[in-house]
Amino acid sequence: MGSSEGERNDEEEGWVTEQEQSSRVNGLPQLLVLLNLDSEQLVKHPRLLSFTSQLKAGKGLTIVGSVLQGIYLDKCTETQKAEENVKALMGVEKTKGFCQIVVSPNFRDGISYLIQSAGLGGMKHNTVLMAWPQSWKQTENRFSWKNFVDTVRETTAAQQALLVAKNIDLFPTNQERFTEGNIDVWWIVHDGGMLMLLPFLLRQHKVWRKCKMRIFTVAQMDDNSIQMKKDLQMFLYHLRLNAEVEVVEMVKEDEQCAIEKAQPWLDFEQKTV
Fold first, then answer.
1. 116-134: b (≥16 Cβ within 10 Å) or e
2. DSSP for residue 138
3. What are the backbone dihedrals phi and psi of residue 101, each rounded to the nearest 5 degrees, phi first?
4. What is the per-residue pLDDT across 120-143, written as a single tens digit (0 to 9) for each?
């Protein structure tokens, strides 16, 4: 009797056992938040932690990690300073969780260490949250986009979900309140329930509470768009989610354009494998 109650409490809190961890990506997201620090060991994008608080509301696991380049023996003081700064910001943004600073000879390996080893046993993340690299188009900063691509690959290899916040500095703070607006979800890849879960979790926070949820999906020429809409509405009903459903129908020219735009990325993937 006692063990079943304990198991139920663990499930309500969002904890997962070590055996379940590899397969439960669509449950409550347990976050590893990857922060970038400046030369003074201050967080470059504080609103990433604001978004974390809005998404988690203090429930489940949150690990806030960052990487310092160098040798640990030479970076002990900087590591302590970075940890103090991150913990202080977590307090300001009301982000409940753990802080983990890793020192690595290069940034890419440090991110890999965090993805592989952050957490302990069942208290381990299943989702990685990071900011979109701002300077990825600059040729002199080629490691920015390369580190990002490697992070995407390693997260996928670890069977974890990846959330990338673009223009994170424009995201709302915890003090802001939206009186209206929409949270739009483009359900292109049917991943189970993660994309549906995220706006639901956001709307539990005061910042997003008055926003409406809209689900967009794309129908190709040979798809039955009316049936797709009914199926998606039924799927949302079973998830107990209240959302407006829109099916966007692609014409032949749209399909060809989508293939042409995706081709450079596919070619890049083949070259770098």
1. eebbeeebbbbbbbbbebb
2. -
3. -105, 130
4. 887 899 999 999 987 766 655 656
